[in-house]
# Entry
Amino acid sequence: MITSISLNPSIDRTVGVDGLNVGGLNRVQSQTDVAAGKGVNVALAAAALGEESACIGFMYREGGSLFEKRLCAGGVKSDFLWCEGAVRVNVKVFDRVKGEITELNSSGTAVTQAQLDEMVALVARHARQADDLVLTGSLPPGCPADFYRTLAEVAGRENCRVLLDADGDRLREGLKAKPFLIKPNRYELELLTGRTLDTLDKLMDAARGCIAEGVEVVAVSMGGEGALILRGDEAWSTPGLRVEVKSTVAAGDSMIAGLAAGFGRAYRLEDAFRLGVAAATVRCMTPPEQIISRADVEALAGKLQVEKLA
# Structure
């Protein structure tokens, strides 16, 4: 069972324009509203890959039914702590000419200490049943920066493997719980280390620094340049793939779902890496309102070229 957490769910409103005119009039050519948030995206991707999947977290009365319907349709179990208020709406402006997305994200509704305590108890219950707990996404107002560390420690005590996809203080604090895997991109790793990581050797050195602190696997996204993964003394990379990008939304979430699925199937590092990168790539090739195809992911994973670095 792969269980992901969604502490700050969002309705992702993607509008398409033919050339974004900053400061001027833009005519919307397409619009979709999708119940999302990184934890929701991970759970749906994991289920699409054939894994037993669940999503837990905070949910709000206004807009919450969209999430229940989408998760149910995607074969994902859900268990939410229901709160008063409305789900936040994030607007993503997709420039169809340049293939670029401009994101306008709202902060969400503040949570109380009592709600945080309930969430800790909820995570503990689910960690007893799950093989993997994926901690990902932004934290709502009122939630301390070290909350992912708290949840990772709770899951660890239940012998549940933790995968952390966070940045800034959430990543820095979360590392102290020694999660099984982290998945920073280049910029997030630079923030963590305080160094410019403009070469592959520097990226590998920074990733090995995280491993020295107790993380078992470090997967690094390098955007159009590809991706990198390290475990112990073993390292693999893959170049960026040229594909028709329909949306980059949830690509990283699909990658961590693929990695979790691969490790859950006891794949070798290189094969788990292939599955993760293939899931992210197929996500980019799929319209944002649609769920990725397992057949497409596995077909691409079988053809994906990876290079052993160490």
